[in-house]
Amino acid sequence: MTFAPYQAAPPDLLRAQSFPPEPVPGLAPSANIGYGGQTAGERVNAYETALPIRLDILSALCYLFPPVTGVAILLLEYSNDYVRFHAYQSAMVGFAILALHFFFSFSSFLSYTILALNIGALAFLGYRAYSDSETLERYEVPAIGTLANQWLETE
């Protein structure tokens, strides 16, 4: 039986044979196979995100209005570790910035100086998140980045 005039054999014979995925220990056999025959917990692509935004743009958006955008992206993005790392780091950097501004609010000169430094630091972090997304290399702020990495690993 031919399905089209240009096919010499049925599609089942032309299709490459693949082995079934290995089961994940601790899961029921029906829960192991996901959409497209992937096993549970297997990521198809490290560059995929749960939101319909590219990885590089989403990771740079974390630093737009910290800590608000960092917390919002943490709540919405659940599948990509690269974006979640930058969201954690952005939220912690944002809270540190707010604490600095609160502590130095008595002096307008110091407040504006810290504001200029914060804008420069956030622009640098956003640029690094955007440019390093091709290799998924994480730029860590010295104390905060290691804590963000630890929190990400414990999830």
Please, how many helices? Answer: 7
Please tell me the total number of domains. 2
Report strand %: under 5%
SS elements, strand count: 0
Structural category: mainly alpha
Question: What profile does the largest beta sheet have?
Answer: none
Shape assignment: elongated
The percentage helix is 40-55%
How much is the radius of gyration in Å? 23 Å
Report the mean per-residue pLDDT as an integer: 78
N to C succession of SSEs: HHHHHHH
Question: How far apart are the termini?
Answer: 53 Å
Low-pLDDT runs of 5+ residues are 13-19, 30-44
What does this structure look like?
This protein has seven helices and no strands. The protein is mainly α and 155 residues long. Mean pLDDT is 78; it is low at 13-19 and 30-44. The radius of gyration is 23 Å and the shape is elongated. It folds into two domains: 1-42, no CATH class; 47-154, no CATH class. The chain has helices at 11-14, 29-32, 55-61, 68-76, 81-103, 108-131, 144-154.
Write the layout of secondary structure elements.
Elements: H1 11-14, H2 29-32, H3 55-61, H4 68-76, H5 81-103, H6 108-131, H7 144-154
Helix pairs in contact: 3-5, 3-6, 4-5, 5-6, 5-7
Question: Short summary of the structure?
Answer:
By secondary structure, the chain is mostly helical. The chain contains 7 helices and no strands.
What keyword list fits this structure?
2 domains, 155 residues, single chain, transmembrane helix, transmembrane
